[in-house]
Amino acid sequence: MSVAPAIVWFRQDLRLQDNPALNAALARRGPVIPVYILDSAGEGNRPVGPAARWWLHHSLAALGAALRDRGSRLTIARGDAAAVLRAMAATTGAGAVLWNCRYEPAAVRRDATIETGLKAAGLTVLGFNGSLLHEPHTIMNRQGRPFQVFTPFWRHCLALEVTAPMRLATGKIPAPNRWPQTVKLAALALLPRVNWAGEFAKSWQPGEAGAARRLRQFVARAMRDYADDRERPDRAGTSRLSPWLHFGEISPRQVWAAVKLRARHTGVFPPNRGAQVFLKEIGWREFAYHLLWHFPHTAERPLREKFRRFPWARDPGGAKLRAWQRGRTGYPIVDAGMRQLRQTGWMHNRARMIVASFLVKHLRLPWTRGAAWFWDTLVDADLANNTLGWQWSAGCGADAAPYFRIFSPMLQGGKFDPGGDYVRRWVPELARLDAPHIHAPWRAPDLVLVAAGVKLGENYPRPIVDHAMARAEALAALKAVRA
Predict the structure, then answer these.
(1) Whether 312 is catalytic
(2) Other Cβ atoms closer than 10 A to 96
(3) Among residues 135, 231, 281, 473, which one is catalytic?
(4) In 295-366, which ranges are continuous DSSP H helix?
(5) Is 426:460 a contact under the CB 8 Å cutoff?
């Protein structure tokens, strides 16, 4: 007796290797129908942002090509995922729908509703962990509660076994007798109408092959020095794997296995300090999902309830927010980070901390506004990571930086971009300033500014706020919250 087709619903797992849902479908030994559904309403108030849509388009194109190489195809649809899946199952005679789980609040609610409806229609529904080392609901502290501090969380995780990544179980993917109706990728209208993302293609290669290539290069070259170089935005010292991880073009288990393979040369795992710190960053991603799963309200509200009373500053007309968004604050290290973001859809992590601290502590604008801007402009926009990062910077989340720790943009620039190369690359109007002045051009002598072609207030702005005054006002606001 023939086995009914199985629908594999691709979401943030756009790869063939180490894909538990796809492997389980193949194990049924029946036809497999790979499906992607653009269901913006099902994402709640966090549909895919503009920069991430660019990545998604090219990632789906790469997945479609990979499936064709295996004798299959990617069926693309848009609309309500529940209705689309029911219709596809009816059209093709599918007996099962399989997916890799998601953990964002809106996706969790939607998936539960879809599962109930499909099961009521007589279909088998199976979900798998394809995006984390350990699912959030399996990790608890000794009191049976979720962790809220990273160090004990990661110590607990390190004591657990990490499952080895799966290889695709077959060469060809068996096709159904009847394919469901599909739309062309272009019909999803993921690419911007005005090509503001033209620089993205120079920086990225979306898709599973690009992810594998980037991981190999990082493990072979930069990982050894990662512990030192990761803080330097002027160096190519980070993995830059975040967008591939978000879209599931590579899994954290594959990353773990690649580092473990490298450890064969030393007989020690992790093989060096750089690898240890790098895996800790994978741990932060796990921690972000752990928190979002257990505290779903944190995508909108602070984990620390007292910060709901924080006296944010007024910004009539949004002038200060726009200056921050456009990289026109007058603080070079902040502006460099924001311009790197606008041009490449990505920002170095140290720069992310600096610009986030500046928004919430120098400008005293709500962290949610920064999170919303990052959501729109990052190719790696990820709700869990975005929420953790912004609440960490604002001092209102789990294991957060204290609010009274206020980064000095000048000191941060001098420490992490000592030669000024990062600023010169992204703020070219300051390119001729030397290192002692490039992080505080308003302090440079007039003759130095003239020689460098810098005209403060004309071709480069003066600081939109005074650092010392902003620091004092931020500390006063914190005192008011505590009172």
Answers:
(1) yes
(2) 21
(3) 281
(4) 319-326, 332-344, 349-357
(5) no
Task: Give me the phi and psi of 111, to 5 degrees please.
Answer: -65, -35
Question: 254 forms bridges with which residues in the sheet?
Answer: none
Q: Band of the pLDDT at 1, cuts 50, 70, 90?
A: low
Q: What is the pLDDT of residue 95?
A: 98
Q: Which of 9, 293, 390, 392 is catalytic?
A: 390
The one catalytic residue among 179, 231, 284, 473: 284
**Least confident span in 187-196, 215-224, 333-342, 405-414:** 187-196
pTM of the complete model: 0.97
Alpha carbons within 13 A on the beta-carbon side of 185: 16
Catalytic residue check, 373: no
Question: For residue range 426-465, what is the model confidence (pLDDT) as tens digits?
Answer: 999 999 999 989 999 999 999 999 999 999 999 999 999 9
Q: Residues 417-428: pLDDT tens digits?
A: 999 999 999 999
Q: Which two three-digit tokens encode residue 225? A: 């020095």
Catalytic one of 115, 135, 312, 442: 312
Query: CA-to-CA distance for 388 and 397, rounded, in angstroms?
Result: 7
pLDDT at 403 > cutoff 80: no
For helices 367-377 and 332-344, the axis angle rounded to 10 degrees is: 40
Q: Beta partners for 9? A: 35, 99
DSSP letter string, 266-308: TTSSS-SHHHHHHHHHHHHHHHHHHHHHH-GGGGTS-SSGGGG
Residue linked to tokens 């991880």: 245
Residue 379: how many other CB atoms lie within 10 Å = 27
Name the nearest CA neighbour of 17 among 69, 86, 54, 87: 69
Question: Has 459 been annotated as catalytic?
Answer: no
324 is catalytic: no
> In the structure, what pLDDT confidence band is assigned to residue 229 with cuts at 50, 70 and 90?
very high
Catalytic residue among 256, 367, 375, 392: 367
**Which of 26, 90, 54, 347 lies closest to 188, judged by CA?**
54
Given 43, 349, 442, 473, the catalytic residue? 349
